[in-house]
Amino acid sequence: MRTKLIAGNWKMHGSKPFIESLMKGMTEQLDASLESDVLVCPPTIYIPFVESLIGDHKIALGGQNLSEQAQGAYTGEVSGDMLKDNGCQYVIVGHSERRSLYGEMDVLVAHKVGKAIESELTPILCVGETLEQREKGTTMQVVQQQLDAVIDALGIDALQQVVVAYEPVWAIGTGVTASPEQAQEVHSAIRAHLRDKNAQIAEEIKILYGGSMKAANAEELLAQPDIDGGLIGGASLKADEFIAICKIAG
Ligand code: PEP
User: Fold this and answer.
1) Rounded-to-integer distance, Cα 123 and Cα 113, Å
2) Which of 28, 47, 102, 106 is the most buried (most CB within 10 A)?
């Protein structure tokens, strides 16, 4: 049985007053009896502030990105060890915005996944196709190539430490969500692809869906057999929406 994970990706949003109010809503309303894991990924600079607001509530912390280097003269970069040192358990790797806006290629993403694992963080490896790729019928090819870059670099066993997030690029921040059937089709194909390499890992790995998930569509998406949670952008900045999704996950 895979425990569901509901992860909020705040992207480059927030300020101390905004975060204080968002976290107040979450810590007051998130029931300790929730079985799902809840995670927030604030902008790096706010991670210690969010950690102080979480206190002993059952909310995990994650980074949105990390360096592929361990340490050194890399101005502006943040290492996996630094995230770990500041209370993070997770880090998002290879988000489509990093891939498209910052030129992160599959090989670099694979390096970052490796660095996250070395720092004892759980990487959330984002994969997904653009609208053009979907329309050309190459969705699974693209997703498999993104997964295989990590498997080729680190070996299939590394995926024991990884969470995958299937995020169709056309659904991120657009308000257009993949239908539950479209999402399930890709999630199940990802699991089948991994099953060929290691059946146990395929069975145990969490595969999150991301792309305009909100309270109104979460129930149907999270009911799909191969969807193990959500990576949520816009709706994670609204306490009521995010809490509602966490409650739907159960
Ligand atoms: C994301 O950025 O990972 C994401 C899924 O964003 P949104 O929920 O806003 O589509």
Assistant:
1) 6
2) 47
